[in-house]
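Dig into my protein:

:::
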Amino acid sequence: MIESSRLLAMLSAHANEHGDLLCHWLPERLITYRRFWSRIERASARLQGEWGVQQGQTIAYVGASHPDIVVLYAALLRLGAAFMPLEGISTQAAMSFMQQAEISHVVVDDHTTVVGGTTHYLPQLLADWCHFEPEVNEENPSAKSLLLPSASGVIDHLSLSELCVKLSPRASSQWVTGSIFDVESLTNIILPSLRDMQTLRFSAIEKIASVHLSNQQE
């Protein structure tokens, strides 16, 4: 088994060896581990080839914890860029954190408005295939690739190696009911589930799918 801190190598291996297992699902779309890795490759191409993301930059996400931000994070790891997820906070708070971190690009949900910076919409990240061959960096688990804001206003710079020290031996649940990128969710649900090839379930997406199914049956 590849060590969990080498997330990209682990996900690539899952895609090659257990690609038909279900990673998670979106309304009307099953995301297997093979498809999950394909989406990471597609996102990497768009981030660098069309959005101009470069190694060493920091990219922020402002929105409501859409599962595709896991794809975004993995794609940024491939490019040697850092990620600052700003989930479920006010625009004013998001702007304050982004000013501290010298953000180069902002990715937002399609209903989110952010003032300033180069802004891209998350649904466009995987809308179609980008025919560009990105320059992929060697995976470095010790890189401070994740910038997590705290309630006190401080930004914690974390590496995958540091997160994996706290990793649960098994996922406490496959349900993600709050923020995706907080330490508790990452170490108890997200990373253990991906390590063990379990199916992640995101409550916000489940609600969307439930409403969609009800509408179809009426």
Notes: The two ends are 47 Å apart (CA to CA). The first helix runs from residue 7 to 17.
